[in-house]
Amino acid sequence: MTDWIQRWQEGKIGWHRAQVNSKLVEFITCLKLKQGDTVFVPLCGKSYDMVYLLEQGFKVIGVELSSLAIEQFFDENNLVFTINQIDQFTLYQGENITLYCGDYFALDKSVLKSVSAVYDRAALVALAVDLRAKYAQHLYFIIPNDCRVLLLTLNYPQSQISGPPFAVDEDEVVSLFSKGFKCQQLQCFDDIKNELKFLRAGVDFIQKATYCLHKTGA
Ligand SMILES: C[S@@+](CC[C@H](N)C(=O)[O-])C[C@H]1O[C@@H](n2cnc3c(N)ncnc32)[C@H](O)[C@@H]1O
């Protein structure tokens, strides 16, 4: 965890994109959202995708370890916010958006009662294998039944380059979300030509996959 805080302090945030993720735009309808619904963004960083969700008329709840990330999010997008302390979290609240600064694994389900959907870009794949199992179990525990999750993953030969982001293949996604979720892969393609770091390291392929998970609770 200190590693992430340090990355933010040193500005080593190579995953951050200043534009909306094209897969969010392409597949947002799979979340079956209505205007005013709330989307949970775990491990949210200062993702510009949260601005896109707000612009589409949704509310956002995020959780992020780094206060620097959250403050940069509000400042860079010219959003006004207030700060409050609740238990082990610092709450940053703007119009239609609440970002919890603290540990995802400490987040209680009472906080996510109003959530209809989850958007995971670079959250699951940011975690090492043991934490990924814990992440999926905790997600199941904290989100309401009937929630849909738009999950973006990467898969590449892990022996050729180290993470994060870590390689997560379809079998792992299916296994992680086998309890209580229906899992559908929406798309998967090799994007090695656009991934310079991986190309330069001689990695054979990098598959980018999109999934829609549905928490049925059964
Ligand atoms: C790879 S970044 C992705 C950020 C964002 N999802 C995006 O697409 O830009 C992962 C983020 O998760 C945060 N993080 C890591 N572990 C966390 C935890 N246990 N609780 C909350 N945030 C965490 C890090 O500080 C980092 O900002």
Commentary on this structure:
This protein has 218 residues and is of the alpha/beta class. The protein has a single domain, classed as Vaccinia Virus protein VP39 (Rossmann fold), CATH 3.40.50.150. A nine-stranded mixed sheet has the order 3-4-5-2-1-6-7-9-8, with helices on both faces. A hairpin with a 2-residue loop joins β3 and β4. The two termini are 33 Å apart. It binds S-adenosylmethionine. The site of S-adenosylmethionine has 20 residues, from β2.
What characteristics describe this protein?
single chain; 218 residues; alpha/beta; Rossmann fold; 7 helices; 9 strands; binds S-adenosylmethionine
| Radius of gyration, in angstroms, nearest whole number | 17 Å
CATH superfamily: Vaccinia Virus protein VP39
* Integer average pLDDT: 97
The proportion of residues forming helix, as a percent range, comes to: 25-40%
Shape estimate: globular
Amino-to-carboxy terminus distance? 33 Å
- The fraction of residues assigned to DSSP E strands is 25-35%
Ligands present = S-adenosylmethionine
Q: How can the largest sheet be summarized?
A: 9 strands, mixed
Counting copies of identical and different chains, the oligomeric state is: single chain
Compute the number of strand runs: 9
